[in-house]
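Colleagues,

For the teaching module next term, I've prepared a clean inverse folding example: a structure given as tokens, and then the sequence designed for it. I'd like students to try predicting residues themselves before seeing the answer, so please don't circulate the second half yet.
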């Protein structure tokens, strides 16, 4: 019986080692796969973001560089 009064095997008697695979976390930009996923890259350097900013600028009748 364990110290809480719930009889059962102790940790060393019947438990098996469980290995849990953890996904790796990538810091690569998911939009262009070309740079680190940092604020400057996401909003200014990423080719996909630049295209989106240009399209938004065109909708607003502005030229963004």
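(Answer key — instructors only)
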């Amino acid at each position: 019986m364990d110290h809480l009064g719930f009889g059962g095997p102790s940790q060393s008697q019947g438990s098996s080692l469980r290995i849990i695979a953890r996904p790796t976390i990538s810091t690569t930009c998911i939009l262009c796969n070309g740079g680190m996923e940092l604020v400057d890259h996401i909003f200014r350097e990423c080719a996909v973001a630049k295209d989106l900013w240009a399209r938004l600028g065109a909708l607003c009748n502005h030229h963004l560089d």
